[in-house]
Amino acid sequence: MHQAAGPGQVSFGAAIARFAGTHPEAVAVTFSSTEGAEEHMSWAELDRRSTQVARLLAGHGTAQGSLVVIGLPNSPEHLVAAIAAWKVGACTLPIRWDLPNWERDRLLAVAQPDIAVAGWKGTRVPTITSGDLAASDELRSDQLPDVVPRPAIAIPTGGSTGQPKIVIRETPGIVASMIPASEGSLWAGRHQIHLVASPLYHTNGFSLAHMALLQGDRIVLMEKFDAARAVTLIERHRVSVTTMVAAMLSRIARLPDIGERDLSSLSSVRAGGAACPAWVVRAWIDLIGQDRFFMGYGASERIGGTRITGREWLEHPGSVGRPSHAEFLILDDEGRALGPGQTGNIFSRIPNSDPWPPFQYRGAAMPPVTPDGFMSVGDLGWLDGDGYLYVADRRTDMIVSGGANVYPAEVEAALAEHPSVADVAVIGLSDQEWGRRVHAIVEPLDPASPPTIEALRNHCKSLLAGYKVPKSLEFVGRLPRTDAGKINHFSLVAAREGGLSSTRTRPIGR
To answer: Fewest Cβ atoms closer than 10 Å to its Cβ: which of 76, 117, 333, 489?
Structure first.
């Protein structure tokens, strides 16, 4: 079994120790609580506390190859627990800390972790509590033997069916081509400040927070996203980089004073997660410029991604970009390649990837793969003549209404353009005439004065073919998005089948 990193590489734990040795008093983490209070953690403190917690984990038998669940809210302790797990060679699995017990236990049954670092009790998994973490401050903080976690990161995902599965990334926990820090520089040419607004139980938050730290950058971590506070943190700490899901970017763009706020420190804002409505893209291009706004497409499985700048998006509106160090194909259900503009199954691969595939599942069968190694995670889309990818939707979310395919993401994007709509989800509900009818769940910007039926009808018909226009609609005070900006369409359908919910429901024409 390989223990240490190879030439030109350092383990995740050694990278943190190196930055602590070079810049011990520099701030590594600024934590902003929901009340607005801030606390700072230096590189020395991050290294010391993660080493102490690593000793706590080792005392419970955690070692290389162990799986450590982290079920904590966004906090410095969450970061410390993950780094500590890596310092003993374990794989980390962040999960939502406030899951209902039945859902948490179902996920743990699939994951089969060796230990959890969490605030809960009463599971069959040995658990290190928040109190145990605090008490570990008395443990030794001298460095442990260097070890590489193989694998390092696992991510939970439920997909549209809600059935839990675990994506275990096969790549080891090493940082390649580490450059010795000198003359005030942690990394050659780098010194960024990242705002982490997403929850750490989601890949957007977890991976981005730790990849920033592992390259020597400082992070500003929000306990919970709030649009106004996020802008204040950007201004106060001169944040240079952030990634947010569309729902977060939308709420910031709708702040009444956003045009007067100072966003000049931002060099890169990336839209991650679900599709970003066109109006949100245009709003952010207006706010920070077309060369500072980015989007992309990828999956937790890391089988290939795309990237697009705001400048490119204006030339290819609606696209999520061209492949970045990856190859993409669009195939029909029989595996035949489709041409430009034809919608089909998105397949991708990373050339010369070792290992391939770069992940394994727990709780599900592996996705389909072509003989030459292209894989699909179930998304539908098309490529244009210039090789830019457009994502239609997930196959499991697609609505077949009256024999025609309707992609909820397209209808959601259209409704999101309406100035009185704060958020929207589109699902298919059983219908005797249409098979499945297109149903929109709308969160109005002003709940006391929702948009009129006529306004929504005219708006939808001006942007969509008639069969795509929602045949029924309901207003809700708040859509049930997770802190990661996700909506489980399957659960929305399940809650409404057999009759619409008690919220106001209005037909809006056919």
So the answer is: 333
